[in-house]
């Protein structure tokens, strides 16, 4: 299915959770003078406008990153705050980076990146801002299976499906199992929505049973509008880098107290 476009949801509370975790992991990885690989299965367009028609229609960014920055949810030295400031300097105060441009902020010469996006319009937009990466207009799981283990072997893979297709919940554990066998040193980060029907739970049980040492981070928040089914955000991370568990705990407290 190619109907999902993240522009309607960019900068919402789920993005804040996901991107704070991602930026923290990449910040730690790039402190060491060793090259890394960054892979992403569902990259989106990479750069969003919070004053665009899509964002204004839902108002999710207003309740998410715009509120968070106004209220100081992210300290000035937080990796996501730094990446966001860099993107805004280049693209204006109401620009918001998707995960590809968050990664671009941290990646260095000698690092490699592979980004997959199947939606034709999203792929075209991504190609305008992601010159740092090898782009794949293909199924993201197929790309990951083809590229892994990447060169360099040290690195991170972000899996961020839209979950419009319910089969994604069954596909993800199988795909991660294959990737973990191919790339046992890789950090595999999975984002998932927490919905009112808890449909993510069988997927998470399967993942935790197969990988009991993985990090599971979940935050809750009010629905974006009446009848909206998403009430939280989850990040599951295989081989989490140092410091990520502490950031997950900080976000849990933050969302509990403020969101």
From TrEMBL:
It holds the Pfam family RsmJ. It is an enzyme of class 2 (transferase). Its EC number is 2.1.1.266. Transmembrane segments: none annotated. Keywords: Methyltransferase, RNA-binding, rRNA processing, S-adenosyl-L-methionine, Transferase. The record marks 4 as: Interaction with substrate rRNA. The active site is at residue 160. It catalyses: adenosine(2030) in 23S rRNA + S-adenosyl-L-methionine = N(6)-methyladenosine(2030) in 23S rRNA + S-adenosyl-L-homocysteine + H(+). Gene3D superfamilies: Vaccinia Virus protein VP39 (3.40.50.150). InterPro entries: RlmJ (IPR007473), SAM-dependent_MTases_sf (IPR029063). S-adenosyl-L-methionine binds at residues 19, 42, 99, 117, 139-140, 160. Specifically methylates the adenine in position 2030 of 23S rRNA. PANTHER family: RIBOSOMAL RNA LARGE SUBUNIT METHYLTRANSFERASE J (PTHR37426:SF1). Monomer. Belongs to the RlmJ family. This is Ribosomal RNA large subunit methyltransferase J. It comes from Paracoccus stylophorae. The gene is rlmJ.
């Amino acid at each position: 299915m190619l109907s999902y476009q993240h522009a309607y949801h960019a900068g919402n509370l789920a993005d804040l959770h996901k991107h704070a975790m991602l930026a923290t992991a990449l910040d730690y990885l790039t402190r060491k003078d060793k090259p890394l690989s960054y892979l992403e299965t569902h990259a989106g367009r990479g750069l969003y406008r919070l004053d665009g028609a899509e964002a204004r229609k839902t108002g999710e960014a207003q309740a998410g990153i715009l509120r968070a920055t106004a209220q100081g949810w992210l300290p000035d030295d937080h990796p996501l705050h730094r990446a966001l400031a860099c993107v805004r300097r280049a693209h204006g105060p109401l620009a918001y980076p998707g995960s590809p441009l968050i990664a671009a902020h941290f990646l260095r010469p000698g690092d490699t990146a592979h980004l997959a996006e199947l939606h034709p319009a999203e792929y075209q937009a991504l190609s305008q801002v992601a010159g740092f990466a090898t782009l794949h207009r293909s199924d993201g799981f197929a790309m990951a299976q083809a590229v892994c283990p990447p060169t360099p072997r040290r690195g991170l893979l972000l899996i961020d499906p839209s979950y419009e297709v319910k089969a994604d919940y069954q596909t993800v554990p199988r795909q991660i199992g294959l990737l973990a066998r191919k790339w046992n040193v890789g950090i595999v980060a999975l984002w998932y929505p927490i919905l009112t029907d808890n449909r993510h739970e069988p997927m998470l049980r399967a993942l935790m049973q197969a990988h009991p040492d993985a990090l599971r981070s979940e935050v809750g928040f009010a629905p974006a509008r009446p009848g909206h089914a998403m009430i939280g955000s989850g990040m599951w991370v295989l081989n989490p880098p140092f410091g990520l568990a502490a950031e997950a705990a900080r976000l849990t407290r933050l969302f509990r107290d403020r969101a």
